[in-house]
Amino acid sequence: MTKYRLLREALVASGVLQATELVPAEPAALPTLLRVHTPRWVNAVVEDGLTDAEQRRLGFPWSPELVLRSRAAVGGTCAAAERALQEGIGGNLAGGTHHAFPDHGEGYCVFNDIAVSIRALQAAGSIRRALVVDLDVHQGNGTAAVFAEDPDVFTFSMHGERNFPFRKQRSSLDLGLPDGVGDEVYLDVLARHLPRVLEGARPDIVYYQAGVDPLAEDTLGRLSLTHAGLEERDTFVLEAARRSGVPVVVTLGGGYARPLEATVRAHIGTYRAARSVWG
Q1: Cα dist from 43 to 40, 62, 250, 267, whole Å
Q2: Omega prior to 165 cis, within 30 of 0
């Protein structure tokens, strides 16, 4: 959890972002969460009604701070999406909680911020079609499940085939990669598929789940990417979205490197790429 504070401080200290560009997130309202999540799940989270088994599956013990942080992570992505529609790009220094299903959470994900944000924009009439580009090392199983029957939302997940979750959901397009794939093969696979995905999805907005756990130093990753490879990945995705004229929302996703500074450095690379592409 420390990485979030360290990342904010480092982004400002390095000049990648200005402090005035960072706005605290408002916690998502309960009716907004209910656009995706079941009343039973939302109430259990908010009112300390999680069972022991649900807390184990989630990976977190319940606390009031967990509720506030989880709602704020969703609110941050919703706010970033509104900014993206206005200015072309917006980002959340949290979020990417792609393992949250409508009726349960897992893998450190309580509520699915990307899914809730898409449903909120659709309900407001701001968008019709959305594309989720999920490059976390773990498949975006919750996001895939939410939109499994929705032809207006294309879910693209490129992940470690042998990594968590071990029971995968079906995204619109899943690309499972072998352990130790490295920069060259990873970037080649992405370059061969993302342009076609953008063309076929015809999105009004792109959500980029920029997980940095493919990093070689990551304890949960195993894809063996370098920092340079990750930043090239981020630049490629953001440039492709900009060339297509589609606004893009950036969320963090996973990062579990040792030392922790390697994860922070990789997240900084994502925002450095965004700055280089968007100015």
Answers
A1: 5, 13, 28, 33
A2: yes
The pLDDT tens digits of the residues spanning 205-230 come to 999 999 999 999 999 989 999 999 99
Query: How many C-alpha atoms does 231 have within 13 Å on its Cβ side?
Result: 17
Q: Tell me: the pLDDT tens digits for 1-36?
A: 889 999 999 999 999 999 999 999 999 999 999 999
Count of domains forming the chain: 1
Other CB atoms within 10 A of residue 151 CB: 8
Nearest to 216 by CA among 109, 133, 137: 137
State the residue for tokens 């950036």.
250
Instruction: Residue 237: give its domain's CATH number.
Output: 3.40.800.20
Burial of 192 by CB count in 10 Å (0-12 exposed, 13-18 middle, 19+ buried)?
exposed
The rounded distance, in Å, linking the Cα atoms of 30 and 18 is 31
| Structural domain range at position 183 | 2-278
Is 161 in contact with 176 (CB distance < 8 Å)? Answer: yes
End-to-end distance of the chain based on CA atoms, in angstroms?
29
Q: Which residues contact 118 (CB under 8 A, 6 or more apart)?
A: 127, 130, 132, 147, 153, 205, 207
Contact 212, 261 (CB under 8 A): no
How far is Cα 74 from Cα 65, in angstroms, rounded to an integer? 14
Give this prediction's pTM.
Answer: 0.97
